[in-house]
Amino acid sequence: MYNESNYNIFIKTINYISITLILVIFITACNNNSGPVPAAIKEDSSLNAKTSTMDSNRIQTISADSLDSDSKNFIIEAATSNSMEIMKAKAALSNATDPALKDFSKTIVDEHTQLNIKLDGIAQSKNISLPKTFIASQQKEIEVLTNRKGKYFDTTYVNDMIENIKSDIEYYTKASKSLEDKDSRKYAADALPILLKDLDALKAIKTGL
Description:
By secondary structure, the protein is an all-alpha fold. It is built from 7 helices and no strands. It has helices at 4-33, 39-65, 69-95, 99-125, 136-146, 150-178, 182-208.
């Protein structure tokens, strides 16, 4: 016998089952679509990361290359001059006969070694490669001095150093005021008192030779 109440319950049950099946199918489909990121998307993401790194490196290089030529030349020439003075002072430690000159030579080695450490830091921060060897004429100059002995060495070394330091003082004075790069200007300004002190010491030594 037809029962309307039972029929309504049957229809509601069918609708509930249908809705449940639809939800299960929908959820399953969503899970299947949330699989691994396609290779093309991964590659594009990787490319963007690499491009960002390249842009960062390029900005740093541009910053280093933007250093004005006068500042760059000063850094290189100052480092070379320091290395020359160190080599000559080491020769004086072996060949000089005057005790005061030997003491002065040790001071020169210590001072110019420290100056070159500062210069090396400046050069690295600005992507500048400093010379590791001397050119032929510089090497010859060192060899000529090294081959001299006794009083002849003392006189030659003192006169050579006085002329070199005078030249450096003139160069550093100009650099401390005119260079565009502030680190190079500061280095020149900081080194000037050392050079002036050494010049006075050399003049005093020369009078006693």
